[in-house]
Amino acid sequence: MSAPAPNFAHLIRLTDDTGLFEHARLAVVRREHGYCTDDVARGLVVTSRETDPSADLLRLSECYLTFLNHAQSKTGAFHNRLGHDRRWEDRAGLGDWWGRALWGLGTAAARHRSPWIRDSALTAFRLGTSQRSAHPHAMAFAGLGAAEVLRAHPGDADAAALLADAATAVGPPGADPRWPWPLPRLTYANAALAEVVIADAAARADDAALDTGLRLLTWLRDVQTGPHGLRVVPAGGWARGEERADRDQQPIEVAALADAFATAAAVTGDPAWQADLDRTVAWFLGANDADAVMWDERTGGGYDGLTPYGPNLNQGAESTLALLSTLQHARTAVPV
User: Fold this and answer.
1) What is the structure's pLDDT at 246?
2) Is 121 in a helix, a strand, or coil?
3) Sign of the torsion formed by the C-alpha atoms of 314, 320, 326 and 330
4) 68 and 40 in contact (C-beta within 8 Å)?
């Protein structure tokens, strides 16, 4: 499908010499909210995917890699929140930010055009693999980083072990075909859980596990499809038996689906997954419940959510990176 090229102007605007600011009022940075490892790691994923990065994007990658190294403790855990005063506001831990940090580092280690960034990212990634999180989402994000490393370094035992443990952490599918999801509730970035199962199955050439991952992703796609395009689970989540709200829909949900569809397409070669990927791009371009464009063409920023009153026009880091990563997939997708 026809899609705009990724515009990194707003990502550059959100980044200073320390890291990536989390929030914005419209397109203006809100420095008082500081930085978080979650967003910096996502930023490193996006900049590392660029095959011909500009000097500005190389600077962003260096900044994000430095931030993650600073955030990492000697145990391999990570701090998450850094104030604008450059002081950590939390203890190093193993929440989602640990998983996303390993995802960013793994992607940089496997894909970045700069050899020194690849080497430095791999060193930090390997330190992080000494840990395991009790949270399935954190493990899924870490597993996606491990899958990236394995594509570049097929014999990496630490990455293989982390990927296998991440797929196990997702849990087995439910017995009820009306709710096969392994968890009782859909929350956030749900597709990452199906994606890591698919990635692990592909790495081990396990057809049965691949079928399971694809079945989970198919169900997730189907329950997040509305009459006007994707209708992703709102910020409050959804469990079977609950009345499901159709807003506040978050761009991160759409981006997670795009990542998973791209992985499914690469693993299976099935063009139907490419068509699903097109639908994630279309959501940002207006094929959603509000017929609303979900980004600002003037700034390059992604809007923070789809509310009952239309887009939330603030352009924070998470939503901007969700837009950029989805458009990256659109640029590299094979036409169907």
Assistant:
1) 76
2) helix
3) positive
4) yes
